[in-house]
Write a structure and sequence with these properties.
- By secondary structure, this protein is of the alpha/beta class.
- It has a single domain, classed as TIM Barrel (Alpha-Beta Barrel).
- The chain has a six-stranded parallel beta sheet with strand order 4-5-6-7-8-9. A three-stranded parallel beta sheet has the order 1-2-3.
- Helix 2 crosses helix 3, helix 5 packs parallel to helix 15 and helix 7 packs parallel to helix 8.
- The chain binds manganese (II) ion (MN).
Length: 377
């Protein structure tokens, strides 16, 4: 063997050893019985990944939602969804926190789910039942988190139907159960949180220093009719129209002048509002349409009081746009499990054409700060 070919063989052998060592150090992916549909490259575990809009349910909630749906005389888009929520695989995945969910999280490299009771929470129930199921759900959620403190955090459920008891439950859920915020599924019986009777809920959130995540549901009955012909009342358009409206109603109501520290989280890249900043600000400053007098422009409140998540919008142009107009400190990663796909969402953000430091903020650092989740590996 000549000197040069000997060297070549030596170098190649060394490379082979290195490749083998690298293969050994790669974490073995746990293959679960049920795969999600997306088939991207296996995500590498370079980031702590906290997914912040992840749905969960207790059997009592699903049963009560089904009861309401079965008793309803007319088509109701939220109640229509109840049929799917009560059918596998959605039902099985919503109720699970011990098996399949952890398997899919591991497969996608997701460290933690921020769990919240699936839409519409307890907001379609009569008041007593709503209060009872919210409390039961919060207790169970706290147990799940106690069992898996590194895999789960959670948002409290409250019944806006009774604002005073919602405030009491928020205090219990945050101070005693150590939950990380509260979720409200947009309108309650056609009413929005900008109404004065709901302000104690917002005041409590500000005082407790926890965010209110406003999660979508279908448009309230008074604006639902034009959506019906093509069933646009669902997530294709109606959810975002409903929830974006809710966010804007809060902004123009003056609630953020009353509670400047109030934090609101919107999913789905801000439910369309960031895209509309220019026109909202221009109209708010050029036409007096008899709206309440507030101190700041709409976009200024949004940039001060709102955070957004990427849930369900795995699209790089929208992400880059939101980073440009909101800043990288206000955007958090979310999957929207089990309604959308874990692997696709993770791979999408890994592949995003943004700096590594920004990715870390969106994957976990911002969520750790906003939801007061302890930092971890
Ligand atoms: Mn969701």
């Amino acid at each position: 063997m000549g000197r040069s070919s000997f060297l070549q063989a030596f170098v190649m052998a060394k490379k082979k050893v290195r490749r083998k060592a690298a293969a050994r150090s790669r974490p073995k992916s746990r293959i679960t019985a049920v795969r999600e549909r997306a088939k991207p490259k296996a995500p590498t575990k370079r980031y702590r990944i906290i997914a912040t809009e992840e749905a969960w349910a207790i059997p009592e909630q699903l049963a009560a939602m089904k009861e309401v749906a079965d008793a309803a005389a007319d088509y109701d888009p939220d109640l229509y969804l109840v049929g799917m929520q009560n059918t596998d695989p959605l039902r099985r995945r919503l109720l699970d926190s011990e098996g399949e969910r952890l398997g899919i999280m591991d497969q996608g490299g997701v460290s933690m789910h921020l769990l919240a009771m699936t839409s519409t929470g307890v907001q379609t129930f009569e008041t007593e039942k709503a209060v009872a199921i919210a409390e039961l759900g919060n207790d169970r959620l706290a147990e799940v988190i106690r069992r898996h403190p590194t895999r789960y955090a959670g948002l409290a459920t409250v019944a806006p139907q009774d604002p005073a008891r919602a405030v009491k439950e928020m205090d219990r859920a945050i101070n005693k159960l150590k939950l990380n915020g509260v979720m409200i599924n947009s309108h309650t019986n056609g009413e929005y949180l900008d109404q004065k009777k709901y302000w104690p809920i917002l005041e409590a959130a500000a005082a407790l220093r926890v965010p209110v995540y406003i999660h979508p549901r279908a448009p309230s009955p008074a604006m639902a009719k034009p959506y019906r012909e093509y069933h646009l009342e669902h997530a294709i358009w109606g959810y975002q129209a409903e929830t974006g409206l809710h966010g804007l109603k809060l902004i123009v109501s003056g609630v953020f002048d009353a509670y400047p520290d109030l934090k609101i989280v919107l999913g789905h890249m801000g439910e369309g509002l960031p895209y509309w900043f220019y026109r909202m600000d221009w109209m708010a400053t050029h036409f007096d349409m008899r709206r309440p007098k507030v101190k700041l422009k709409p976009s200024e409140y949004f940039k001060r009081n709102f955070y957004i998540t990427t849930s369900g919008v795995n699209w790089h142009p929208a992400l880059r746009f939101c980073i440009e107009v909101l800043g990288e400190d206000r955007i958090m990663f979310a999957v929207d499990y089990p309604y959308q796909e874990t692997m696709e969402a993770v791979q999408w953000l890994i592949d995003a054409p943004i700096p590594e430091a920004t990715k870390r903020k969106i994957f976990h650092e911002n969520a750790e700060r906003v939801f007061r989740i302890p930092g971890g590996a």
